[in-house]
Fold this protein.
Amino acid sequence: MLTHKCLNKIFSKQKITAYIVIVFLILPLVLKVLITPIPANAAVSFQRAASATGTSVTVDIGEAGNNRLVVAVIGNEATYGDTFQGTFSVDGKNFTQAAVADNPDGVGNHLEVHTIDEAALGSSNGSLSVSYSSSLSPTPAIRVAVYYGIKDDTLIDSEKEDVVIGTPV
């Protein structure tokens, strides 16, 4: 696990603060939008996660039949209002963009959240590369999390959410 001191060596304080704010504000919103209340006898569980600098990371997405949901988050210090113009994929299957956030203050951070569920994953299983289809500058950071127990009929269909944090300049 990366400590704050270690992260400061990798990223500047301004980057870390912006990413932490964006992730803590966006990820709960995305999960709230995607998941309806689940009966008490259903068990949603976090399985594993992987992070990398760049546009791909290898993660074990588990075995088919576990009602998986894979959430991929990508962000960098892009200019305010930029979009990444790419898609996430795993084993040739595309993720769906769920949310976009911009922080126009300072260097202007950009973050996107993408998801893929059990129905779309099909028989894909095991350790696979989750990759983003476009090269980005500056180099982005990505994080992929795998959850079990997310039934297809509990997901809510909705359009992606665009969020601006701070005051647009």
